[in-house]
Amino acid sequence: MSTMTFCQGLYELMDSYDGFIMDQWGVLHNGVQAYDGVIDSLNHLKARKKQVVILSNSAKRSDDNIERLKKLGIKPSMYKAVVTAGEVAWQGLRAQKEPPFKDIGKKCYLISRADDRGLLDGLDVEITSDIDEASFILITSFDPNGTKLEDLDPVFKKAVVRRLPAICANPDMITVYGSERAVGPGAVAKRYHDLGGMAHLIGKPHKTIFRYAQGLFEGVIPSRVLVVGDSLQHDIAGAIAVDMDTAFITSGIHGSAFPAGISPDQRRKAMEHLAQIYGGIRPNWVLDSLIWQTPEAALRERERARMKE
Questions:
Q1: Is residue 1 predicted with pLDDT exceeding 60?
Q2: Sign of CA dihedral 181, 186, 189, 195
């Protein structure tokens, strides 16, 4: 059983790591704004010449996410690269040379929000609304306001009979937008799988995308890379599978397990309970949010500096 150490801020980890792989939603922002302390933390990392790669299960391409981050005040100068599940899916669909994309075809039955069709831009792929004409299913997002998961069953059952593969360009089971939590694309892929379909999940927690992100660092050995995420199932489990250290952010998708005012002992018990729910997955470090240090810790640090003068 690995030990989980609770931290008050990212500054406590500076001597142990040179590279940081950070999740986007739930760690850096909530889709509406950057979390308090995030930009300050990224600036501190940059000042210490630490390298940051942002790794997201977003079904949008990397450039789209760079633009989204800019609007939230997170500038490209604050990180080294953005890697997304959508980018990996786009490249795979363009080449169609490696599994699960090999010879997948050119006609796509798309499951997405009405405003989320950009992943197919620049590809020689045609969208069809008739599942009988499709050669594959592509899942990029889900609009729970207009559709329920079970509403997809008639289409999925036809697809199962035809043995159509489904590509899910965002494996997240739950999506975060502001304070809301909603059904994620990963849950749609699971529904198809449960009905007997072949569903291929692109992104975390699968090893390929972590190894790709890891390979983007310059001069940083794997043992000096830390993965920071808010999903035990995707961020933490995926990083552990490729032997990387992990830091878990409690205020993301599992935030309801850590209500405001919780005592340190209750916090530890809540973390242990979550770890057990997810099959014993335990991060190396646990932080409430991505902050550099708490005001109390900053005060203590200033006091220590004053005493040395």
A1: no
A2: negative
- pLDDT of amino acid 117: 83
pLDDT tier at 298, thresholds 50, 70, 90: low
pTM reported for the whole predicted model: 0.82
CATH of the domain at 37: 3.40.50.1000
What gap in Å lies between CA 25 and CA 31, rounded to an integer? 7
Of the three residues 201, 221, 254, the one that is the final residue of a domain is 201
Q: Is the pLDDT of residue 300 over 80?
A: no
Is residue 145 exposed (0-12), middle (13-18) or buried (19+ Cβ within 10 Å)?
Answer: exposed
H or E element, residue 98: none
How many Cβ atoms are within 10 Å of 202's Cβ, its own excluded? 27
Distance CA 32, CA 131 (A): 35
Distance CA 223, CA 165 (A): 37
User: Using CB atoms within 10 A of its CB, is residue 60 exposed (0-12), middle (13-18) or buried (19+)?
Assistant: buried
* Co-location of 161 and 115 in the same domain: yes
Domain enclosing residue 118, as ranges: 100-201
251 shares its domain with 294: yes
Do residues 36 and 28 touch, judged by C-beta distance below 8 A? no
User: What does the pLDDT average to over 33-60?
Assistant: 96
Q: How many CB atoms lie within 10 A of CB 53?
A: 22
Residues 116 and 149 in one domain: yes
Contact assessment for residue 294 and residue 300, using Cβ atoms and an 8 Å cutoff: no
Strands 285-287 and 126-127, sheet pairing: unpaired
Residue with tokens 């786009």: 90
pLDDT of residue 305: 66
Mean pLDDT of 171-188: 82
